[in-house]
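User: Can you predict the 3D structure for this chain?
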Amino acid sequence: MQPATDPIDLLERYGTLINQHRFEVLAPLIDADAIFWFNDGSFSGLDSIRTAFETTWARYPEERYWLEDVSWIARSSDAASCLYRFRWNATIDGRPASGSGRGTTIMRCTDGIWRIIHEHLSAEPKKA
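Assistant: Here is the predicted structure, written as structure tokens:
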């Protein structure tokens, strides 16, 4: 696989490959020093991030994940950041389930290769 050539390409690849549930295809898109924040914890470095992904995939083997309403809030030749809504569906205990939340991804370009350096996903805020 060729390296991502820009942040949009990187995010599109990530959004496609994540549904293969194979971390080895995602790893080239994630910086070795990345930090991911999810509702269930903070994960630093590829080994920790791999464990978080694989734990989720084992729990929800039929999960499908996608992004909507992507808004690029910063873009330069060496860094970019976007906000989005993420959605998922899965089968939990034999029943269909789905959900959504908010996300932020920060990417950086090193030696011409774009990678994710930070991702923060959180549940939708509770409505008053």
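The chain has one domain: 7-122. The beta strands are 30-38, 41-44, 64-75, 79-92, 95-110, 113-123.
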